[in-house]
Amino acid sequence: MSSLLAPIGSLLGGVALLLLGHGLLNTLLTLRGIAEGYSTGLIGVMMSGYFAGFLVGTWLAPSLIRRVGHIRTFAFYAALAAIAALLHVLIVNPWVWLVLRVLYGIALVTLYMVIESWLNAQVSGDKRGQVFALYMAVNLGALALAQQLLSLDSPLQFTLFALAAILICSALMPITLTRQAQPTLPDMPSTDLLQLARIAPLPLMAAGISGLALGGFWGLAPVYASQVGFDASGVGLMMSVTILGGAVLQWPIGLFSDTHDRRLVMLWVVALAVVLAIGISLLTAGPLLLGLMFIWGGLAFSIYSIAVAQMVDQLHPDEILSGSSGLLLANGFGAAFGPVAAGGLMTFFGAMALPIFFAVTLGFLALYSFYRSRRVVDLLTEPHGHFTPILRTSPTVLELMPDTPEIDHDAQQHEADEEVQSAAYAEPEPAKH
């Protein structure tokens, strides 16, 4: 383990600090919005700005990283994220917050991309699975732990916003002090959603609806928790319990899906999540609600991971990176729309509308999964993929997955060096008179 952690310890430390600040800020903004009297629909629109920025940043980030390098890019966007965190408390206006959320989303996806491309370059093929699992555990653990920081002070005070900014800035220290060489950022393959919909329609549908449901969760679950009777620390507890459920229960679900028809596993996972969501809509704050949210989190968080594993089953190895990028895009669009839809419903129907939103969206996926399992025979390729718990971060993380073809970064760097040398020694063209 020490030999595994030595080259990537600073990267994992940086992402842990970053996500402690990020996880705290996301929930804190929702609680502050409630305290300021913003409507649930307005909070949903405001929180969707983060996911919109995340999508925009996916296209903007690679060019900047290639131009100024990993460390400078990380420093620039960590500073932007910290500034955005502090401006939320200095300018308390929902429309200003919406713009800040977009900028913050652009910053976060770029920070993810820097760290993940660096991890890819440091890990050999036989250790990719271990590093990927460790990276996802750090992600989920930091997000869960961040929720407990909410009990340190009131959302109306400056303290928690300052703490979020401090944690984000702290992520700079292990990253900028690393002695690891900066890698070459590889080109991501083009994505053809129409072709992916023809080859693997169920994984694409599952990725989009998973984003829709979990986008609603990340954006509106703190509102729901406060409306059913939790105080600020209780809101943090419910968020932590749900995230921990996603971390713990994905493993047994994944092992089961590796030995059974993934379409049927998807059907049962989604159907159980629907039943639990309906049960949750009937409860108020208490241990039973926390228990159901733990199980629901395990089921809901595993849907995207099952979709990725089934997509790997159905695509040729050379198509996996492109297909995974397509699932990530579908998931991102769903996540951007989820808080808006859930927030609008909660404005009219109250707290119970959020779990009902989960039940309706996932119920549609359950019906489609049932149709695919009973009426359609999917073409499977060899070898089959393996379930890997995954969060939607940046497209670069897809290369770290054990089932994706490994990219030779040394060859890419050598090719880039040759291009620079050939350009330097090229004979100038004669001047035209």
From TrEMBL:
Organism field: Stutzerimonas azotifigens
Keyword field: Membrane, Transmembrane, Transmembrane helix
PROSITE patterns reported for this sequence: MFS
Superkingdom per UniProt: Bacteria
InterPro entries named in the record: MFS, MFS_dom, MFS_trans_sf, MFS_YcaD-like
Protein known as: MFS transporter
Regions crossing the membrane: 39-62, 74-92, 98-119, 131-150, 156-178, 199-220, 232-253, 265-283, 289-308, 320-342, 348-371
Residues covered by the Major facilitator superfamily (MFS) profile domain: 2-375
Ranges for region Disordered: 408-433
